[in-house]
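Task: fold both queries, return tokens.
Query 1:
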Amino acid sequence: MSDPIILPSEVKTVVDERLEIWADIGRTKSVANDVMSLSSKVPAGNAGSPVGQLIDTSNPPAEIAAVLSGLRSEVQKITRYDTDIENTKNTIIQLQKQRTTMIVFGVIGSILVVFFLIAQIF
């Protein structure tokens, strides 16, 4: 059995800092991948004025997380709008069918009324 490695406190502090940095890098890469996958679902728009600081601290990983949250919100809006558009299209199609049916029955009814009136005259 091997003996455990004992690190001096100043070395342990540096190692812990490095581990935290690598963990932050891993989380940031994960968030960046999420942003890239979501960005393909959001249409490109005109470039606007630069946005100021998104959060109270200037912590880049936290700002990226804030952007990711906003991007997810936009994707949800787009999905909701797409659903609304599809529902509206279906409603328009139903109304067009009803209009066509009403026109057909109106024409048939008018023809029957005309024949009935002609039959009454003769």
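Query 1 returned. Query 2:
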Amino acid sequence: MAGEVVEIIGLAEFRRDLKRAGLGTKDATAAMKKAGAPVLAKAAAYAPRGKGTLAGSGKISAVGTKGRVIFKPVYAPGAEFGVHGRWVGFEKWGSTPRFGYRALAETSDQVFQIVTAELNDVLTVYGWFHD
């Protein structure tokens, strides 16, 4: 899922408000990791299964207010998009995008709910989220 990121815009202000609420960037990172779990589970379920290790190689990477789901094999972009450099022949697995972006699209509401639940105090008290 190269380039697909859940990001909080206004990082400096967000960090300031996290500190005021008694929270830190570690709390935001933990929220991003927790929110990535359903994306990773669905993406791993959708990932092609053949001779390689793609489906089992997924992991969640979260730093600060950014979270990503990453699949390690060098052929992962080819599996996701059909072709990537010399990695071709994934057409038999269906239309693109196949697993990562598809999983993110299907779980985006759930990701949003998890992040807002985890950071509810700072999001509501300091005006970052309104009902």
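Both queries returned. Flag for query 2: The two ends are 30 Å apart (CA to CA).
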